[in-house]
Amino acid sequence: MNFLSIKDFSGLEILDAIKIAQSIKKNGSKNLLENKFIALMFDKPSLRTRVSFEIGIKRLGGETIYLSKDDVGLGTREPVSDIAKVLDRWVDGIVARVFSHQSLETLSKNTNIPVINALSDLEHPCQALADILTIYEKKKTFENINVAFIGDGNNVSSSLALACSLVGANFIYASPENYKIPIEIWKTAEQYSRQSGTNVSWTNSPEEAANNSDVIYTDVWASMGQEEEKDSRNRDFQGFQVTPQLMSLAKSDAIFMHDMPAHEGEEISKGMLQHPNSAVFDQAENRLYAQQAIIQKIFS
Question: For labelling, which of 149, 221, 249, 297 has a CA lying 20 to 30 Å from the CA of 178?
């Protein structure tokens, strides 16, 4: 089984993964990966993703092999399909953090071992599961929970929209017109929301999205690989900064979330990570347990 998209898990499977993650967080993990080797193939560097996967896999009894962009040259030094076929002979799974989602598809088509998406340009499903776990910990339910995402319709918001619609939470996001979640992903989220009896919607007003919300979530305006667009994006996203004033429009017990790294003065005002309602460090911690739950479901 591969985990390339959050929709690779059904709503019930996501809820099961939350239970597994909570159990691991409370009681520790099983020795599930004894004598197994997992390749961590990272086209993009990362703090949270690398450390949480390395610790999580080792706590499950496995070993990791870190492969950087310079080590592999994914799709440049040699074709992705060739890399996949070689690793398939040696390792028991691949965790890949890549620029192009197509690389993940090619890896999965040319291996017989699990491939886990640790981030692509299209989705960030491991982050989404950690986010959903955090929301459930804080709110104890998804019923009538309003999740507001303020910012770019990127991989993080795409996976979060899908996850919310799968588990039965309402999702609204605010972005400029030209920075919406990709239409195919949005159509899928709408389909899931109809099935779960929830609402997903878009607005160009951060205030409208924040109003009466239980969760306010934001992410950087320019992701890794979009550095040349930073100035234009900063201009386009003026008015979309999450501030204490925007938080005041939400419910009094609303939580603030950010997948980090965060840029104060851009998508958030100074001090937002330390806001009394901030859950960002709990959210970061939960990457560990969510990813262990994913691995447990795949390898059990």
Answer: 249
